[in-house]
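Tokens help. One example:
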Amino acid sequence: MWYWHGMGFWGWAMMLAFWLLVVGLILWTVRSTATDKGSGEGAALRILDERLARGEIDPGEYEERRQLLVRHR
């Protein structure tokens, strides 16, 4: 039973702060490495622009798909 009484308030506070820091660092690391750098609001429009530039789609199809993308943002 003496185990729980030995650390006092500051001991518990420091242990809590340490574990919060550890969990925060783990979460930050996971989020920063798991984020897809190519995704975002403009990624779909950029890909559509590239497809038009390469000649994969014609201007009519480009405009139709662009309207869909802009409407569903």
Notes: Residues 38-73 form one domain. Residues 8-34 form the longest helix (27 residues). The chain has a mean pLDDT of 86. Residues 50 and 56 are 9 Å apart (CA to CA).
